[in-house]
Amino acid sequence: MSLPKPLLAPVTTTTLLLIFSILSLAHLTGQGGYIQTCMSLAKGK
Fold it and tell me: Would you say which domain of life the source belongs to (predicted)?
């Protein structure tokens, strides 16, 4: 199942922004904070 092209770009951009923000948080809080962020995100979904 593939997404239509018009939908694909916003989804990719959102995903990249999400990854970037997680990496920024990881950089600010250190490895422990990174793991906690991943865990809370996993629980959120």
Answer: Bacteria
Phi, psi angle pair for 4, to nearest 5°: -60, 150
Mean pLDDT for the stretch of residues 14-30? 81
Instruction: Give percent of the chain above pLDDT 70.
Output: 64
Two structure tokens written together for 9: 């770009």
Other beta carbons within 10 angstroms of residue 26's beta carbon come to 17
Q: Return d(Cα 12, Cα 40) in angstroms, integer.
A: 22
What is the spatial distance between Cα 10 and Cα 35, in angstroms, rounded to a whole number? 27
